[in-house]
Each structure stands twice: as structure tokens, then as C-alpha cells.
Design goal:
Largest sheet: 6 strands, parallel
Low-confidence stretches: 1-86
Biased composition (Polar residues): 22-50
Mean pLDDT: 79
Shape: globular
Helix content: 40-55%
CATH topology of the largest domain: TIM Barrel
Bound molecules: zinc ion
Number of helices: 11
Strand content: 5-15%
Oligomer: single chain
Protein name: Xylanase deacetylase
CATH architecture of the largest domain: Alpha-Beta Barrel
Region (Disordered): 22-90
Keywords: Carbohydrate metabolism, Glycosidase, Hydrolase, Metal-binding, Polysaccharide degradation, Signal, Xylan degradation
Structural class: alpha/beta
GO molecular function, one term: hydrolase activity, acting on glycosyl bonds
Distance between the termini: 83 Å
């Protein structure tokens, strides 16, 4: 008799404890099977730590845990899936040579040599320009690197998110757009690493391309770049959009005059460049050029 009562008591306690655990977990209403306490804790852990994963491994494990359970976890797993997509290993089909031209890794008919890499510096400035540029890129099935300044990201984090959300690849263009070759090693480090940090904090992506302002570096710049796994990337075709202001046709002419296979084209987030872009990309395609996806460029220059 005593044993039976104790058994009922124990069962009641277990049921009560299961119920309270479920209500503590809170958002597991969609889950048909009551979660065990251990599982609830795991879920809670996965949902509170997902997108800040410091590295691919952390992100991947959070995603795996979250992916197996309830609605709240699914919500977080979609975030982690996007994050891990950004850092997922890809097969590199191109590299950059010492002239800052893009070259296929293998001689193959499948990998076009007649390509250009599109880059836009000095943003993010304005949603209207960014949307117009990316609308044009989308129309031509092109992606580009947007070399941003940390100070601009600080003022407009939502614009960095916009570029990233719309498929733009983000590069580091220093924090304050200062000419690094004139600066101390400590200042160089701060300018590059503060920019890496604010980009990572804003979109959870660590850039792997660095463009020093004016294309001007020194040993310290190369050293800090290498330590941060950043490829030092100048350009091989300057659109001169910073010289020929308010002149969309000049932007096009300047690029077409210097165009060659593998051109890395320097442009800026400027109204006349935005205006010229559709016509420029149409002309490039008419000459048989296609656009390199920046994610297919291997990390080491050679
Ligand atoms: Zn610049």
C-alpha cells in the first residue's frame, strides 16, 4: 500500500516537473512530444547562442542541435544556415596574379578566361544607390566586391546589411579611408582590424579582401593583411570615376579603353557610376566578357 502511494506520488511529481519544464522552455508549443529537461536546456542553449558563433564549427554545431526540434529552433537554424553559407568552403576556380588580374586556376574550356571582377569602393553611403547598383548586377547575373569603410558602417549598419542581404561580397577599405603607407604600424593595424571587427559584428562575416585607400600600402599593411587572412587587392583597370565627376559616359570609356582578360575594375559608390553601370555591363557582355563571382577567387595571390 505504501509502495503504491509512493509510486503515485513519484509519478505525479514527474508529470508536474515535465509540465513546468515545458513552460520554462516557453516556445515549445509546436513540439508534439513533451521535451525532457535535458533536451529543453539544449534547445534553449541553441536558440540563445546561434548567430554569434565565433567560427564555422560553432555555427555548424548550433545549427545541428537546433535543426532537430521545435519551431523556435527552426527559426534559429535558418539564421545559422545563412551564416554558415557565408563561411562555407567553396571550390576556388580563379586566383589573382601580381598585376591584380583574375586568372583561371586550370586551363579548361569550362572556366572562362575572358572575365572581369567588379569592385565598388567607399561605401556604404546610400540605400538608393546600393539598390540600383545591385538591381543592375542582378540583371546581368553579376556579383561584386563592395570595399567599405568601417566609419561608414558605424554610421549606417543597415546599409552594410542591405549589401550583404542582396548578395554583395564585402571587402575591407580601412576604417577612416586614410592613406595607410603614411601611418604607423599601430595605426595600420587599428584601421584594418577595427573594420574587420565592425563588419563581423554587423553581418557576421569576416572579409577576406583588403583594398587600401589609393592602393597605397607598405610592409605593415601587408603584414596586418596576412595576419587577418586578407588578400591585398588593388586593381588593374581604374574607371577614373573619381576624376571624371558627373560623367557616366567617361566611366564607360575609361573602362573599355583599358579592358583586358581578368581585369579587376575599380569603381566607386557614386551617382554617375551607378548611372553608367547597366550600359557598361551590357558593353562588357557584348565583347564576350563574363563576371567573376568573388567567392570563387582563392585566398592566396600568386
Ligand atoms: Zn577609396
Amino acid at each position: 500500500m505504501f509502495k503504491k502511494t509512493a509510486g503515485w506520488l513519484l509519478l505525479s511529481v514527474l508529470i508536474l516537473s515535465a509540465c513546468s519544464n515545458q513552460s520554462t522552455a516557453g516556445n515549445s508549443g509546436a513540439n508534439q512530444t513533451p521535451a525532457t529537461p535535458a533536451a529543453s536546456e539544449q534547445n534553449a542553449g541553441a536558440t540563445t547562442t546561434p548567430s554569434t558563433g565565433k567560427d564555422a564549427d560553432a555555427t555548424a554545431s548550433a545549427g545541428t542541435t537546433a535543426g532537430s526540434t521545435d519551431a523556435k529552433s527552426q527559426e534559429s537554424s535558418s539564421t545559422t544556415a545563412e551564416d554558415s553559407k557565408a563561411e562555407a568552403p567553396v571550390s576556388y576556380t580563379y586566383h589573382m596574379n601580381k598585376n591584380y588580374d583574375i586568372v583561371p586556376n586550370k586551363e579548361s574550356d569550362k572556366t572562362p578566361k575572358k572575365v572581369v571582377l567588379l569592385t565598388f569602393d567607399d561605401g556604404p553611403k546610400e540605400a538608393k544607390m546600393i539598390n540600383s547598383m545591385i538591381d543592375t548586377l542582378d540583371k546581368h547575373n553579376a556579383r561584386a566586391i563592395f570595399f567599405v569603410n568601417g566609419s561608414r558602417v558605424k554610421r549606417h549598419p543597415e546599409l552594410l546589411k542591405l549589401i550583404h542581404d542582396r548578395g554583395g561580397v564585402i571587402g575591407n577599405h580601412t576604417y577612416d579611408h586614410i592613406v595607410l603607407k603614411n601611418e604607423s604600424p599601430a595605426k595600420v593595424k587599428q584601421q584594418i582590424e577595427d573594420t574587420q571587427k565592425i563588419i563581423k559584428e554587423t553581418i557576421n562575416v569576416t572579409p577576406r579582401f583588403l583594398r587600401p585607400p589609393n592602393g597605397a600600402g607598405n610592409d605593415a599593411v601587408h603584414e596586418v593583411a596576412a595576419k587577418n587572412n586578407l588578400m591585398y587587392m588593388n586593381w588593374s583597370v581604374g574607371s577614373l570615376d573619381w576624376v571624371n565627376q558627373n560623367d557616366p559616359q567617361a566611366v564607360i570609356t575609361n573602362v573599355m579603353d583599358q579592358l583586358h582578360s581578368g581585369s579587376t575594375i575599380l569603381m566607386h559608390e557614386l551617382p554617375w557610376t551607378v548611372e553608367a553601370l547597366d550600359q557598361l555591363l551590357t558593353k562588357l557582355e557584348a565583347k564576350g566578357y563574363t563576371f567573376v563571382d568573388p567567392d570563387t577567387i582563392e585566398p592566396e595571390m600568386r
